[in-house]
Amino acid sequence: MPSQNDKPGQFIPPVPFSDLTAQHAALAAEIREALTRVMESGWFVLGPEVEAFEQEFASMVQTAHAVGVASGTDALTLALLSLGVGRGDDVITSPMTATFTALAISRTGARPVFADVDPVTLNLSPRSVSERMSSSTKALLPVHLYGNPSEMSALLELADKEGIPVVEDACQAHGATLRGRPVGAWGRVGCFSFYPTKNLGALGDGGLVTTDDQELAARIRRLRNGGQSNRYVHEEVGLNSRLDELQAAVLRAKLPHLSAWNERRRTLAALYREALAESPLDWVDALPDTAPAAHLLVARAPDRDRLQEALSEAGVQTLIHYPVPTHLQPAYRDLGQGEGACPEAERAAREVISLPLYPELSEAQVERVARAVVSFYR
Ligand SMILES: Cc1ncc(COP(=O)(O)O)c(C=O)c1O
Q1: Left, alpha or beta for 175 (phi > 0: left; psi -120 to 50: alpha)?
Q2: Is 162:154 a contact under the CB 8 Å cutoff?
Q3: In the predicted model, is pLDDT for residue 193 greater than 80?
């Protein structure tokens, strides 16, 4: 059966990088019921399912408001627009992320400015951020990469000193906590993606914004719906970025399982670490006092490219997150932050490898991956 990462008819390795068919098979009855409920209701965009999901998600993140939108990229774009970020402004973010983070900044008309990452967590280094802040900096946009919370206290302190907001890119970190507080509740706005392979994934695209600020929430609600305050009254130039009822209903069926799925991911990550304790893999680590979402399991690996090839031959699918840091993407050539601008991110891009990690992965599969890694380095 084809999986998310395979074209129809392609061979599926014994250890695929992800396996959404397994997740959906386990929840088939709930998901079918959700889809049927929406189909029979005749209401497909911004309706009762979206409203209920927003409340349920806000309660998980412990924020007063949540607003469902069309994607994680749109969540970031709308968050920045709602804060008045636009042309002439700079937003400082991490180069070690899905490039979509920076695309959202660019879409507002603002300029992404990349600070370097911490070599242990690969999340934004507060020291590098402070060096790159200027009078044009209008917001900080840390990414909770791989599901590991960023150093929010230090970043908030820097932002507060300048009176600018922090927008969290929590697109990989649903359910993660830092010192007991969920990500998405630390900054002025938190942004989530429901791309199918995320810890909480839709059957297509989806996203959501969290905030405690009622005015911002109201503005984001307006902006996601073309800037309309009332039907046919467009108060400002907004986007069409609405979450649909089918996706919200599916996400509602999955949300109650998120916490157990994250726990299972953490258990499997611990198993990998134990099995590979003697190997030269150097794990990307979370800060102390965090419950990571364990979205991806990432290590620096000597001779990374040859290891990836050997694993592929052994039936283990791996990916690189990310092979090209955002400041070196062709789309950002004109920004002037070339090679050497973020040395730690550049080094990480050459060294990291992501091993398969998802709740449905078996212990036997983890052992198979571990054996293949050990055999490569022997
Ligand atoms: C860290 C990060 N930010 C932003 C995004 C963009 O989310 P989406 O694909 O839902 O637009 C993603 C996912 O691709 C992501 O991993």
Answers
A1: left
A2: no
A3: yes
Output the average pLDDT for the chain: 96
Report the nearest-CA residue for atom 8 of ligand 1.
Answer: 72
Concatenate the DSSP letters of all residues of 332-358 into one string: GGGGS--TTSSHHHHHHHHHEEEE---
Residues 8-37 pLDDT 10s: 556 789 999 999 999 999 999 999 999 999
Integer Cα distance of 236 and 222 in angstroms: 8
Signed CA dihedral, 66, 77, 285, 256: sign only? positive
Closest to 274 in 3D by CA, of 129, 146, 374:
374
Ligand 1 pocket member 82 (CB < 6 A): no
Does the model's pTM come out above 0.90? Answer: yes
Please state at what angle helix 48-61 crosses helix 245-254, rounded to 10 degrees: 40
77 Cβ closer than 6 Å to some ligand 1 atom = no
Q: How far is CA 236 from CA 268, 272, 320, in A?
A: 48, 51, 40
